[in-house]
Specification:
The protein contains 21 helices and six strands. The chain has helices at residues 3-10, 20-26, 29-32, 36-52, 58-77, 89-101, 103-107, 114-150, 170-195, 214-221, 230-235, 238-265, 292-315, 330-350, 358-366, 372-381, 386-403, 412-418, 426-430, 432-438, 447-461, and strands spanning 155-160, 163-169, 197-198, 225-226, 272-273, 355-356. The two termini are 45 Å apart. Bound molecules: arginine. Arginine binds at residues 28, 32, 88, 114-115, 118, 322, 324, 326-327. Residues 28, 32, 88, 114-115, 118, 322, 324, 326-327 line the site of arginine.
């Protein structure tokens, strides 16, 4: 496309065409064409508002609506010639509309600027994609609940410092992940509210002299309200920063989750098995079954953090109102959406198919004196101050280490050597089952509590987006 064609849209005050490299350098159509459905949606609403206030005839409005609908069909079919000379998605569509329907097409931009147009498009894009991310999150949460229910009494070691600490139930561990995702969903829900505000009508920066009806436009587009300040509405992208921040926290959670899956599928742990469909082999080592999906999700976390930094930096020194810098918001936004959606999708498909190797988990929980705290607690029950009980159990653990036995394998006589208060019922609390069942309070690891937590969580998901 020649620069003559470009001049049709904003070239009136120029005497020379744009340098070819500058034209390509400043263009965004290569990536913002992804906004086409939202651009058409926004333009159709704008045309209806123009008709509503008498700035377009009914026939002109109808021509615009039909023209834009046909253009979107062409785009969806891949039958649209995008032109870099026309710079961005907005001017490509508008130019095509005028080609198609003539003079009515030239009236569409009345009372509007690309500045409020693009800000509206991105908010429409974000609104739709926040809903998709929320749906994938919910699917993953549902899968976690299924697995947690199955494993409400599966015993595994709980860790601190990656050292065996106390036995927990696998269901309880899974519900920890569920809780993280619940907060992630809340953050998205909150960010969706601030996203759903309509910039349209702010025009370039100062608003418009035409008697447009912004409430009507907001209603047509499903926005909660028109924006309060035109300068702010065309320039800020804080809603996108908020989304990338929420997405970064989701990825951070998925990355922690991934790290545990990678550890647990290793031969050294062997706590879980991933379905073959989520693993890949090695081209040289025939025995390998690598946990590629969690590794990749862990790796992808970095790019989402990067996009958050890009957007924060993009905004940090911009004076009011719109600046071309803002064109750089699209790629980080799109890639964040794609990355977080893909990662959640992979996890939502994978998690319900995880198999727990219960025997390996149980055996690992038996190591590392994981019931030492239970022994101390039982001594406290016999009137011994906790600090003294801690000391007594420390000595028992030392004997266990020296003789390579677990606490439950020491004899009653040996234990009584550390404290005469110890009686035969001590062996009840030294078992893994006794240890987990004893933690029977809200937020505790007892199988009964996990069952209850799953039930409560299931109810909390009902009706959620
Ligand atoms: N492609 C531009 C963007 O993404 C659209 C707005 C252009 N506005 C302007 N005044 N040059 O931000």
């Amino acid at each position: 496309m020649s620069s003559d064609e470009q001049n049709k849209l904003w070239g009136g005050r120029f005497t020379e065409g744009t340098d070819a490299f500058v034209q390509a350098f400043t263009a965004s159509v290569q990536f913002d064409k992804r906004l086409a459905p939202y651009d058409v949606q926004g333009s159709i609403a704008h045309a209806k508002v123009l008709q509503h206030v008498g700035l377009l005839t009914e026939q002109e409005c109808q021509q615009i609506v039909t023209g834009l609908t046909d253009i979107l069909d062409d785009i969806n079919r891949g039958d649209f010639a995008w032109s870099v000379a026309l710079e961005d998605v907005h001017m490509n569509i508008e130019a095509r509309l005028t080609d198609k329907i003539g003079v009515a097409g030239k009236k569409l931009h009345t009372g509007r600027s690309r500045n409020d147009q693009v800000a509206t498009d991105i908010r429409l894009f974000m609104r739709e994609h926040i809903a998709l991310v929320r749906a994938e999150l919910k699917r993953l949460q549902t899968g976690l609940l299924e697995l947690a229910e199955k494993n409400h009494d599966t015993i595994m070691p709980g860790f601190t410092h990656l050292q065996v600490a106390q036995p927990v139930t696998f269901g309880h561990h899974l519900m920890a992940w569920f809780e993280m995702l619940t907060r992630d969903a809340q953050r998205l829900e909150d960010c969706a509210k601030r996203t759903n505000i309509m910039p349209l009508g702010s025009a370039a920066l100062a608003g418009t002299s035409y008697p447009i009806d912004r409430e009507y436009a907001a209603k047509l587009l499903g926005f909660d309200a028109p924006s309060n300040n035109s300068l702010d509405a065309v320039s800020d992208r804080d809603f996108a920063i908020e989304f990338c921040s929420a997405a970064s926290i989701i990825m951070m959670h998925l990355s922690r989750f991934s790290e545990e899956i990678v550890l647990w599928t290793s031969a050294q742990y062997d706590f879980i098995q991933l379905p073959d469909a989520f693993c890949t082999g090695s081209s040289i080592m025939p025995q390998k079954k690598n946990p590629d999906v969690p590794e990749l999700v862990r790796g992808k976390t970095g790019r989402v953090y990067g996009h958050l930094m890009s957007l924060l930096t993009l905004m940090k020194s911009q004076p009011l109102a719109y600046n071309k810098d803002n064109q750089e918001d699209k790629e980080p936004i799109f890639d964040t959406v794609d990355t977080v959606l893909g990662s959640l999708r992979a996890f939502a498909d994978m998690v319900p198919n995880i198999k727990a190797n219960k025997d390996a988990m149980y055996a690992a929980a038996k190591q590392g004196f994981s019931t030492a705290t239970d022994l101390a607690d039982s001594l406290v029950g016999k009137g011994i101050p906790f600090r003294d009980a801690h000391e007594i159990v420390g000595l028992a653990v030392r004997l266990g280490v020296e003789t390579q036995r677990d606490l439950s394998e020491l004899s009653l006589e040996e234990l009584q050597g550390f404290s005469p208060e110890i009686t035969n019922d001590v062996f009840d609390v030294l078992t893994l089952e006794g240890s987990v069942s004893a933690r029977n309070h809200i937020g505790g690891t007892a199988p009964e509590q996990v069952k209850q937590a799953v039930l409560t969580a299931k109810a909390s998901l009902v009706g959620k987006a």
